[in-house]
Design brief:
The chain has about 550 residues and is of the alpha+beta class. The protein has a domain at about 90-190. It is built from 19 helices and 16 strands. An eight-stranded antiparallel beta sheet has the order 5-4-3-2-1-8-7-6, with no helix packed on it. A hairpin with a 5-residue loop joins strand 7 and strand 8. Helix 8 packs across helix 9, helix 14 (about 410-430) packs antiparallel against helix 15 (about 435-450) and helix 16 crosses helix 18. The radius of gyration is 29 Å and the shape is globular. The two termini are about 30 Å apart. Residues about 215-245 and about 455-465 have low confidence and may be disordered.
Length: about 550
Amino acid sequence: MNKKVIFALYTLIIVCIGFATVIEKRLGTSFVSEHIYGAWWFSGLWAVLTVTALAYIIQQKLYRRTAVMLLHLSVVVILVGALTTHLFAHNGHIGLRTGFPTTEYIDKDGNKKPLPFSLTLKEFRIVNYPGTDAPLDYQSVIQYTEGDLQYPAETVVSMNNIGHINGYRLLQSSYDTDGQGVTLGVCYDPYGIAVTYFGYFLLLVGIIATLLSRQTQMRALYRKAMQPLAILLPLALYATPLNANDDLQVVDKDIAHRLGTIHVLYNNRICPLNTVATDFITSLSGKASWKGFSADEIFVSWMIYYSPWEQQKLIRIKNRDVQQLLGIEGQWASYSDFLDEYHEYKLKNAVEAMRNGDHSIDRKALMDADEKYHIVEMFYRGQFIKMFPYRFGDKVVWYMPGGQSLPREIPVKEQFFIKQSMDYLTESIVTGQHDKAIEIIAKIKLFQREMLQAGEHHSGMKTDDLLPHESTVKAEIFYNTIRNQKWPVFLALTLSLLLCMVMLMSSYTTTWLRVASHLFITLLTVYVTLLLGLRWWISGHVPMSNGHETMLFMAW
C-alpha cells in the first residue's frame, strides 16, 4: 500500500472538513451535521482511510515497533468508537419542572422515548463569578428513582458536571426564565464512549512510548536540534525594538505597566487592566501592539493625551468602499477620520441604509468599521475602566472613575476617592511626578483589596476573597502578550504543508527530515500546552467552555 494514497485520503478529508466549516457559517450546524458529517460518503472516506492505514501497517510491519503501532492503532480505535456512536447512540432532550417527575425524553426526531427511571427537578440555581453578576455555572439538582431504590437518589447536573444514571448522560442545556424549569440534553451511548475513551488511552500511551523509545531516536534528535536553539533563543528574548515615535506623547512605560495590573470588571469578570488594553488595541488594529508601543502604553496614553492620539492611524479598515466613505487612502484610519468637520459620524447614513436593506457596501466590512468606532466611543465613556468596587451586603458593584452619581450608602470619603483619584493620577503623570503617580496607583489597589479582600469589612460582615491572586494576574498579563501573536499560526501552517510535501516526495527515513519534523512537533506541542495551561490557570476551570478553547484542546 502506497503511503501517498494515505496522505491523499487524509488531505481530502481535511479539505472536506474545511469546506464544512465554511458552509456551517452560512447554512447552520444542523445542515452540516446531516449532509456532511453524518453523510454516508463522509463515513465512507474515514472507513477507506482506516482500512488503507491498517493495510500499510501490516505491509510495512510497523507492528514490530510498539510505540508507532500504538499511535496508529489508537486512531483506528477512536474511529471505531465514533462509528459505534453514530450507529447505536440515542440522543435527545428532556424538559423538567420543579417537583414534577418525568419518565420520557424527546429524541432528535421529535418522538417520545421511555426512560428506565424517573427524573424530578428538585432545585435549579445560578452560581455567579465572585464579585460579579456574571453566571459562572448553572446547576440542576436532580432526584431520580430506578430499580429497587426505595428512596430517590440525587445528582447535580451543571455546565462542568455531567450526570450519569444507568448508562444515560444528562447535560445542562438551558433553563426557563422563571428559574423553575430546565432543559437537559440526554445521551445514551454506553459502547461508543467506552471504545473512544480506550482509543484516547492508547493514544496517550503511544505518545509516551514514542518519547521514551530508543527506536525513534527522539532523545538524540532533540539534543542535536536544540543545540542551535540554546544560542538563538536568548538572543531573540533580549532583542528589543527601537522606538521612533519620540514626538508622540506616551505615558512612562513603568507607569503604564503598573496601571495594567490594576483590577477592573470587564466582560463580567475581574481581570487586570492589561486585558482590557490588549483587547482594545487588538480590536482596532488587529495587533496587540503598535509602532513599538505596548497595549498598556497605548491605552493609558490615549486616556490621558487623547487629542494627539485621536490623530494616530491605528484603526485598520480593509474595505475600499468604507475607506472612500471615511476619506482615507490605504488601510489605516485615525479616530478623527470617522468624524466630519461638524464632528458628525461619517458612517451614520451608510449604516442606517444597510439596516434598511441597502447592500451596496459589504455588510461585514461596514459593521466591522462601525464596531471599531463605537469601541472608541465606549472607551471615552469610561465603560472599560470599572475599577472601583463597593460591597452592598453580599453584592459587589463596580464603578467607573469620574463624576457619575453614586449611591448615598457609600461614605463621602470613599465617594471622593472614586470620583477624584484618576484626576489626581492624570495630573501627576502629565506634570512628571513619577513617584506620586506610583503612590496613587498603590492607593487604588489598596482600595480594591479593602473592598474585596477576605476578612471583616467596615460594615462588620465577613467577606470572601474575590481578588485574583497576584500570580494569576501575572499569568494573564503574560498570556495577553502571546495570545494574539499570528506568526506561530502562519509558521505552523507553512511548516506543516512543507513537511507534508517533502514526505510525499522523499523518504521519511532521512535524518534531516526526522530532526525537522520532531523539532517542529515538539515546539508546537509546547506552545499549545502553554496556551492551554495559562487559560486553565487564569479561568480556574478546564479550558473547554467555548468553541475556541475546545479547538485548542483538540489541537493539543
